[in-house]
Amino acid sequence: MQAPLVRSFHGETLVDPHAWLRAENWREVMRDPAVLDGGIRAWLEAENEAAERWFAPHAGLRRALVAEMRARIKEDDSSVPAADGPFAYFTRFREGGQHPLICRRPAGAVAGETILLDGDALAEGKAYFQFGDARQSPDHGLYAWTADEAGSEYYTLRVRDVAAGTDLADVVDETTGDVLWSADGAYLYYIRRDAEHRPSFVYRHRLGADPAEDTLIYEEPDKGFFVSLGRTQSGRFGLISCGDHDTSEIWLLDLAAPLDAPRQVEPREPGLRYGVEHHPSLGGVDSLIIETNADGAEDFKIVTAPLASPSRAHWRDLVPHVPGRLLLSVSVLRGHLVRLEREDGLPRIVVRALGDGAEHAVAFAEQAYSLGFDPGYGFDKTEIRFTYSSMTTPSEVWDYDVASRARVLRKRQEVPSGHDPDRYVTRRLMAPAKDGELIPVSLLFSKDTPLDGSAPCLLYGYGAYGISIPASFSTSRLSLVDRGFVYAIAHIRGGTEKGWRWYREGKLSKKPNTFSDFIAAADHLVAQGIIAPDRIVAHGGSAGGMLMGAVANMRPELFAGIVAEVPFVDVLNTMLDDTLPLTPPEWPEWGNPIADRAAFDTIRAYSPYDNVTAQNYPAIFALAGLTDPRVTYWEPAKWVAKLRATRTNRAPLLLRTNMEAGHGGAAGRFDRLEETAQVYAFALEIAEQPEPAGLHPLA
Questions:
Q1: Among 18, 539, 663, 696, the one annotated catalytic
Q2: Among 139-153, 362-376, 489-503, 638-652, which stretch is predicted with the lowest mean pLDDT?
Q3: What is the pTM of this model?
Q4: In the annotation, is 628 catalytic?
């Protein structure tokens, strides 16, 4: 028996009986899983074996789920090519292939393909492989690409000579995956992490030089800020974006003058967020177009500023703030401003002519749907690309001319085994929260499913970081719906489905709203007679996994089962440890319990691991990734260990740790189906048997 870890904060004593599951050399484990402590490895593998024994009687169901989910995938699928000068770039899969092929062909042609990178070949013999960023050089002769081979989000940067089909000697290890070219193609920009795995250092690499001699051009001084790279649509500037969940700061890289130092747009100010685009001649002035929450614009507005003097004192409103209309993203073409926004929970694209300010919207009539747009390459054009789907409608890719308003369907998602949208129904309900707020809930079910209170339900939730969960199409979830499930998404506070206020009302001291909203959504579905009260399986991952742990503690009798993927359940201990990768950047989301006693008390009151009690719990299936830098593997491991030692019943309690992957699970597209099938098999078995007779082998 390992000794518990005992610590004191704010005069309170914390006892952690399962702290031994955290490897002291966790940083090295991220790079090389083989160096994991033998005792910890044995414990995790014993849990994996026990979970497999529970799933063994359901092997036929898992095989059937994988087979039907795979049958819905067009195996030799490809993306719609995106033109960039003389070439059009796209990805495709070969029949049976796990990983994408990155390709190009002459613009406007249907033949002449060149395979730039073969993901299947590059992944051969590796336990894990995942592409990161990939960008063609300005002259299209080279292709910079990154890949992660451990799941730990350490990416190796390489440069492919397109004509030769081989990589140059330029190899940079342990980058974040972001990569950017200078305008002359002589330099690359990339980011390295600090000792705590935080993206912190921006480097410039001269092609052909020793990476050891690369120039550090930006170092982030705040351990709470992460750094990323981007580029303006005009192509003139690279963007060094620094920020946490509340505050941002951007530095411009003049890609035509790669040896120049970065130039700050506006100094960081707590609570001020902004994003930058560029227009070389807006009203005859070289300008920046900035999306920001300045001046109380909680749901964001768009301002302009002269490039020569871009600071906040010179910002002038272009698109005013409208409360409840959340601006999601902005792109700038020479003649048009295109923005994606959401109001009343539904997204739309709005096009603004920069000449006269006239606007028009692209919207759709379904009750719930997903919409996104991609401006593609180039600045001097009038065409964008948008993607539309709903929970019943497969994804559609459209090219849209923002000037003429003509649209061309470029691709409709194929479901080889067949899909009839008329067999399914999607609805949106509003569930009343305990404080009177109305929580949107998106539903998908078969027309044959009786809504008489007898149907099982998988209820999904996330509710953090301002991320909204789209009501988009998924071929996998049809395997549940075809078996009589109601699939539901609770758009709870902590997301931005109803504007930035919806996010603000589900963070920091108001985080408990997220949990009570999810419970209210489940209660409402039962009260409306739509689903069975004893056959609800709750599902969430990462921060949504924290939601799962919280509701399991608060209302265990409400759920037949809980699926918690890479769950952030050890919130208090993690937020008290500022050496972990995500701790300082996460304080604006959860609070800093080291410095703030009130934050300590709030987090301690809901942290799932700290609030496990001696009560009956629903069946639980937790999934983890050994090399996960976002939610470290020991969080779900400790949670399951404490549940097993504390609970008063013997419902299935399963932990599966992927010993060769990180936060996203398996990288191969068919390997991911195996993981999904395991989750769905658990949901199906638990929902059909609310009180399973079988005991967990380690119970």
A1: 663
A2: 362-376
A3: 0.95
A4: yes
d(CA 62, CA 251): 50
Q: How are beta strands 12-16 and 155-161 bridged, if at all?
A: unpaired
Residue from 678, 672, 693, 687 nearest 51 by CA = 678
Single-letter amino acid code for the residue at 675: E
Task: Please state at what angle helix 597-606 crosses helix 512-527, rounded to 10 degrees.
Answer: 30
Task: Say whether 653 sits in a helix, a strand or coil.
Answer: strand
* Averaged confidence pLDDT in the chain: 95
Of 225, 229, 249, the residue nearest 239 (C-alpha):
229
CB 156 within 8 A of CB 211: no
DSSP state of 536: E
pLDDT tens, position by position, 20-37:
999 999 999 999 999 999
SS3 content of the chain, % helix, strand, coil (to 5): 25, 35, 40
Q: Which pLDDT value is given to residue 694?
A: 36
Instruction: Kindly give the pairing relationship between strand 561-565 and strand 653-658.
Output: unpaired
Helix (H), strand (E), coil (C) string for 33-53: HHHCCHHHHHHHHHHHHHHHH
Backbone φ and ψ of 670, nearest 5°:
-80, -30
CA dihedral 674, 689, 447, 470 (to 10 degrees): -50
Amino acid letter, residue 242: C
The predicted pLDDT at position 695 comes to 37
CA R_g for the chain: 25
Residue 663 a catalytic site member: yes
Angstrom distance (rounded) from CA 492 to CA 691: 28
pLDDT at 664: 81
The closest alpha carbon to 188, from 225, 134, 234, 233, belongs to 134
pLDDT at 365: 80
Catalytic residue among 370, 607, 628, 696: 628
Helix (H, G, I), strand (E, B) or coil at 676: helix
Of 241, 476, 479, 542, the active-site residue reads 542
Cα gap 304→522, rounded to integer Å: 45
